[in-house]
Amino acid sequence: MNLGKLVWRNLLRRKGRFAFTLGGVAVGMAAFVSLLTIGQGLDREIKKQAQGLGANLVVTPKGWCAYEQISVLTGEQLPEAIPMSEIDKIMAVPGVKTAVPYLNEKTAFRNRPVPVIGILPEEMRALQKWQIAAGRYFKAADEPAVVVGAAIAKQFQLKPGDSFTVRGHPLPIIGVLREAGNKDDVATFMPLPVVQKLYEVEGKVSFAAVQVDDLQQVDAVSLRIQEKANVAVVTDKQLLSSILSIVGMVSGAMQAVAAVGVLAAAFGIVNTLLTAVYERRREIGIMQAVGSTRRTLFAAFLLESGLYGLLGGILGVLVGMLGAYVLGPYLTDNAFTASLRQSPVPSLDGATLLLTFGLSIGLALAAGLYPAWRATKLSPVEAMRYV
Amino acid sequence: MSETVIRVANVSKVYGTGEAAATALSEISLDVERGSWVAVMGPSGHGKSTLLQIMGGLDRPTRGQVYLHGIELTTLGSAQLAQTRARAIGFVFQSFNLLPHLTALENIQLALWFGGKGDEKGHAQAMALLDSVGLAEKAHLCPGALSGGQQQRVAVARALANDPDILLMDEPTGNLDSAAEAELLALLGRLHEQGRTIVMVTHNPAVAGRARRVVRVRDGRIEGDRVNGS
Ligand SMILES: Nc1ncnc2c1ncn2[C@@H]1O[C@H](COP(=O)(O)OP(=O)(O)OP(=O)(O)O)[C@@H](O)[C@H]1O
Ligand SMILES: [Mg+2]
């Protein structure tokens, strides 16, 4: 006989109560884990997209807030606001290698929203190192044609020669991009002048990605741009951190709600164990008569509650990750978090896993303290006298 | 020369305080010799169980001392007292005194564990103990699947687990039919012949008749103390 065996037997005595209490812990932990997983996936995805941007500086209209900055990364529709003339001024600023403008618009294709992005074909190809998987690339900077991202091509089963309708105008699809693993996969591209004309925003762009000659000079170039042109400039790092901080706040708030669920489950453990102490008070007396110390009794009840935390934690992690996998795409299907759609495999890193089990087991142990203490306060004689 | 295993010296026990105070034992003194078989008799509510619990260190006296082999139990801390109960004393109660979710074997292993013998040694020894009370083939049954008499024999085996100095039994035959009672008494007789020291509370004169000495308790005092057959 040993403590583990004794506790295990006690745990499984009331199967229904065990299952419901464990279920409470598991549900709480699952909510916590799935939100954590989704938050982390979002974080990872945003970082990846920021790299995919290939820019040192992002030029935006003045007064953009973080919500609009996120769209730079996700390819969502943007209020078009910088005149092309400003972009020309920026290109002339010393230290600027390239300034590539983007015009982010949106269309509906077969009743699904699809980003339409106006670009300068040659500059973009150089900046993004795009590869063509099928068909060909734009031949002229104003060719009225469409190149589609790999995921879009797959989703709608599009191939070169098919037609893509934007605002009632059918355009030929000439090429499909090779999969890049970022937002370019879920967009369609057209030359800038074509998009400007279709959307009647001639001479305007949404934002521009700037590469500098010398990375050391990024801040100086940024200042010079703001002197010369009527725009706002953020570095890619600033952009990333401001987006991450907002996403972090949102997922932090969601996790706090989930943590309340875990706390409620801990009260469930207290309740179950107090009932168990009451039910077993005669046995507790017998154990003391046979020679159990109070410390052993205390340890037995504490271990029993700790097991709820461990088992509930394991179940919760499994269910939570499954939940993130299944529900993640729906929960994040909005402009704010759209990029997560591309990251279907949620995963928890070791540190997070440790934190999760720590929370689950720690709370469960804390929940066991009071019932365990109550058990040791039972006098053996009293315990046996009243059946 | 007889050796005293347990000495109860001027023990009083008062339950509660103030108005509600109830005196269960008053100034009781009793010596139990090694190898003796003592029956404690007396009317209901007159302090027999209280006396047994105080002798076994399960409860503390309000006044007076209890010595086990000269060691004063009343001075021990709760952990030391628990160790003493595990190693030096074997309790058997009237009913419901096995843990219901453990098998007969495990109930005995539990006592061995409290006495400091873990799984490995415990298993073989617990089997031997069950065998000695004639229940080896019931080792893996839970108490619910055993008859009252079988449960009591398991309880006796458990009480013997750590080779205690004394067995303390509170109405061990109280819930048994006459056949089971006879079987248990035969077992106790064998233990007595092997030199075990036994103190048992009983209402039944026939059961008390099997003991070598009968102590009568009334109003928390010793009213009579005689050796059977004399
Ligand atoms: N925890 C307690 N609190 C208050 N009074 C108690 C307590 N335990 C026992 N008593 C009282 O002490 C007295 C002695 O009780 P005890 O159980 O020792 O009697 P007993 O001789 O064993 O009786 P029985 O033959 O019915 O088992 C009784 O009056 C009982 O009501
Ligand atoms: Mg009694």
Based on the model shown, name its key terms.
heterodimer, A: about 375 residues, alpha+beta, ten-stranded mixed beta sheet, two-stranded antiparallel sheet, 13 helices, elongated, B: about 230 residues, alpha/beta, Rossmann fold, six-stranded mixed beta sheet, four-stranded antiparallel beta sheet, 10 strands, about 25% strand, globular, binds adenosine-5'-triphosphate, binds magnesium ion
Describe this entry's structure for a reader.
The complex is a heterodimer of chains A (387) and B (230). With 387 residues, chain A is of the alpha+beta class. Chain A has 2 domains: 3-48 and 243-385, no CATH class; 62-230, no CATH class. Chain A contains 13 helices and 12 strands. Chain A is elongated. Chain B has 230 residues and is α/β, with parallel strands linked by helices. In chain B, 34% of the residues lie in helices and 27% in strands. Chain B is globular and about 50 Å long. The relative contact order of chain B is 0.19. The model of chain B has no long low-confidence stretch (mean pLDDT 92). Chain A binds chain B through residues 1-2, 5-6, 9-10, 13, 282-283, 286-296, 379-381, 384, 387, and chain B through 53, 56, 58-59, 78-79, 82-83, 85-87, 91, 93, 96-102, 106, 109-115, 118-119, 122, 158, 162. Magnesium ion binds at residues 48-49, 170 of chain B.
